[in-house]
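Because showing beats explaining, we think one record worth quoting, sequence and backbone structure tokens together, and here it is:
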Amino acid sequence: MAAANVCKDDYVVEIGPGIGHLTERLAQSAGEVAAVEIDPDMLPVLRGRLAPYGNVRVINEDILKTDLPALFSRPAKVTANLPYYIAADIVMTLLRGEYGLQNLVVMLQKEVAARFCAIPGSKDYGALSVIAGYYAFAEIAANVPRNCFYPRPNVDSAVLRITPKKNLPLPPPEKEFMFRVVKAAFAKRRKTLVNCVVSEGISPSKAEAAKALKSAGFDENARGEALTLNDFTAVAKALRERADLSRP
């Protein structure tokens, strides 16, 4: 909870409270807590435990199916202990919604947390690293070895602290086009970026793609794994401009 830096003025949304160990601590520290729990079997214990606290609202819903604009109608901090197979999807849904979140503190599988924080050229760097980096700054607040849990899982965990950026630079059409370029670049990591954008239908030919990369300051042999977020922004801009020039 220290990673979330919760105080009495905060509205906190907890995703996956379970039986409420963390929820109770949040209720003692925050101004208001909304606890979103998908499992109805958890509700009797959760509600019983939280009965002494008048500042907690328990919501029995799937976070991906709930009314997110209503849930995040005001600035919020998010804490989450999620099933690892869907944790990254939930985090990205919250970031892409641009709800004005103050921060997110999430426990993830260690390898997934590393992908959020990865830098260009590293083995963990990929589309998730770039797209998450467009929306937010991410850092590993703590590593949690598997032997901290009972029963002991097969993977290590990490607590990821995510701070959304306040000002995003691209309007929606340009942003989504840039994301297409990013996803294409990592769809086949061993291919050059030129080949990737052609095979994914973003550029009509290798010649056009090479011209776009050159105008953005990159060699035609450049690969996505070496490009930063700013590099991808420049490449996407160049590809859009080349596409405009090639139209009759």
